[in-house]
Specification:
Layout: H1 9-17, H2 21-54, H3 57-61, E1 65-68, H4 77-88, E2 92-98, E3 101-107, H5 114-120, E4 125-130, E5 134-139, H6 144-157, E6 170-172, H7 179-187, E7 200-213, E8 218-225, E9 228-234, E10 249-259, E11 266-276
Parallel strand pairs: 1-2, 6-7, 9-11
Antiparallel strand pairs: 2-3, 3-5, 4-5, 7-8, 7-10, 8-9, 10-11
Helix pairs in contact: 1-2, 2-4
Length: 278
């Protein structure tokens, strides 16, 4: 639930230590409320960051993503950074202000060392720490633009490959798309840098419908496996619309989730990558 990110880790500790069943239930309810709050904060930051990337040409075209909003929650920006890396396949650093100090949390894809990049750019930072794929840092606000220029130059010179290597956990078929699979996925939450969301390979899906959403930012498919129809959504992949035609067959790498916007609720695929079936 990551309640520690909201500064409420003591609630989780009290739940584990409590021997009175009624009091334990009170702590469990409080934890659930905090988790819902954290999810809402995460969504707000994610939506804000996507808007800053997609609506500012310079942000979208660079080899790295560095964004600053003093109102973002410091405990959640690392989670959002991870999500943005999975979408844009670029190193991402999000900055916010906490108690007057500008703090940042960065993530990157395999094949690039975020720690090495920060070491090269250390003269612009107050302090930093972390490892190859994740790091935290602090900086003076007026130095953010110069830091971004230096960081971007390092990333550009590193010649990161455009398409990242993706580790797939399981191959699935239509028989696997059920409540049991969703329960298994939810049971291993929360997801993050050390516990990534499971990725599935699903082969030979026929395109029944295809369109773009949000001013062509995202792509949505209706895919068919035998007589079974499946919705699939690719965030920030609308630019790939012209690669495909109706009746093409796809192999996809995806997350599996419950689409709560539909009535009744349905299982949908969230696409990490996809290509025509060979």
């Amino acid at each position: 639930m990551l309640v520690g990110r909201l500064g409420k880790a003591s609630v989780a500790a009290k739940l584990f230590l409590e021997t009175d069943e009624n009091k334990a239930m009170e702590f469990a309810i409080k934890l659930n409320e905090l988790n819902t709050k954290r999810q809402n904060i995460e969504k707000e930051i994610f939506d804000s960051a996507i808007n800053m990337i997609e609506n500012v040409k310079e942000n979208k075209e660079k080899n790295s993503i560095i964004l600053y909003n003093e109102n973002w929650h410091n405990g959640v920006i690392g989670i959002v950074s991870s999500r943005l890396v999975s979408i844009y396949n670029k190193p991402v650093i999000l900055f916010t202000k906490e108690n007057g100090v500008i703090r940042g949390s960065g993530r990157c894809q395999k094949g690039f060392s975020l720690y090495d990049a920060l070491t090269v750019c250390k003269d612009y930072l107050i302090q930093f720490g972390g490892h190859e794929l994740a790091a935290g840092m602090s900086i003076e606000e007026e130095k953010i633009p110069d830091f971004y220029d230096a960081f971007e130059e390092y990333v550009k010179s590193s010649n990161i490959v455009d398409r990242q290597e993706i580790d797939v956990d399981f191959e699935i078929t239509k028989e696997d798309l059920n409540v049991s699979l969703l329960k298994d996925i939810y049971s291993i939450r929360p997801f993050g840098q050390s516990n990534p969301e499971p990725l599935f390979l699903y082969r030979n899906l026929k395109i029944q419908a295809i369109r773009t959403l949000k001013e062509e930012k995202h792509i949505k498919f209706v895919l068919k496996d035998d007589k079974y129809l499946i919705e699939a959504l690719g965030f920030s992949k609308g630019h790939r619309r012209d690669e495909f035609r109706l009746s093409d067959k796809l192999d996809v790498i995806c997350n599996v989730e419950l689409n709560t916007f539909n009535t009744p609720k349905t299982i949908q695929l969230v696409l990490e990558d996809f290509k025509k079936t060979i």
